[in-house]
What we know:
Helices cover 44% and strands 9% of the residues. The protein is α+β, with helices and mostly antiparallel strands. The protein folds into three domains: 2-56, no CATH class; 64-142; 170-330, Intergrase catalytic core (hpI Integrase, Chain A).
Amino acid sequence: MKTHLKSVGPDLYRMPNGIYYGRKWVHGKLVTKSLKTKDSAVAKAKLKKWLNELAEKKITGCTMKKALEDFLQSKSHQKPRTKMTYKWVMNTMEKSFEGYEKELSNVNANDLKFFFSSLSLKPKSHNLFVEVVQQALDGAVEANQLSKNPLEKLKLRLKVVRKPPQIPTVEQVGKILKTISHQVNASLETSKFAEFLFLAGVGEAEARNIKWKDIDWEKERIHLQRIKTSKHFYVPFYIWLKPYMAKLKEKMSEEPEYKVFRTTSAARSMAAACRKLKYHKFGPRNLRQACIVRLLRSGISPKLIAKFQGHSDGGILIMTRLLRSQSHSTHQDQGSGVQTEGR
């Protein structure tokens, strides 16, 4: 019979005698059902009802334990710290979720909802926990072990109240960089890398991937690619960045494919410097934020700054997170002016 079925639409087929059939992959098996009609409209209505019945059919052959184990195996390439998070989720569910080793056909959405509501976690950790379980069950659906994710209609995420970021002043950044340069275990390269993050206002991930070919000395701009979104953007030579770039040009490699910076992170050196100076624990991201605040106080519009950050929201994030932060009012004017276009 299968060889004579002709596809006439998604999951809908017709025999030479005009009878319509529905076909659907369920748990790795192709299921065929006669819709017992030659009428197209009636067949589509019956097909929809049948597909709904399949979706609501109880899940068999898959447990929460298996879904999480398969998920962890699929993430074997992740960093050890990330895998530790996944194992934490598995261990917590094994200890606290009664249906951990039961078939999910015997666990309803309310059981899962009750479990997540009983977790005594901070909103950020709670949402991470939910995300891991959600992804594990999505993976089971993709592997045809589940007909649908029992969490798909549940709203389990908690609202995360973000505190205004603490951003260092230009004076504080100067002292941090000076302290890093005098650290026994930190190289001059680390100090220069951190200085670039502040002067250019870019993240570590983007900065560490800059190659000499990405610097346009004629138009005075640096071409980057945002790691999270793969979006290409450029940062102009700001007035305070120009002297740094002039010194950097003296060390330019003849190989355009070589990376500009050899160091990978300034986080540890910054943390040590902040401890010594008895500052708040500022990180590389705060250097980027300090540059953005400096641009704002120079009179540059949030929309243009967003462009230089590789954002596509027109400056909304900058307006809501930085422009209104309490730290903004503590910054001193650093002069105005920025070269936004090449010569």
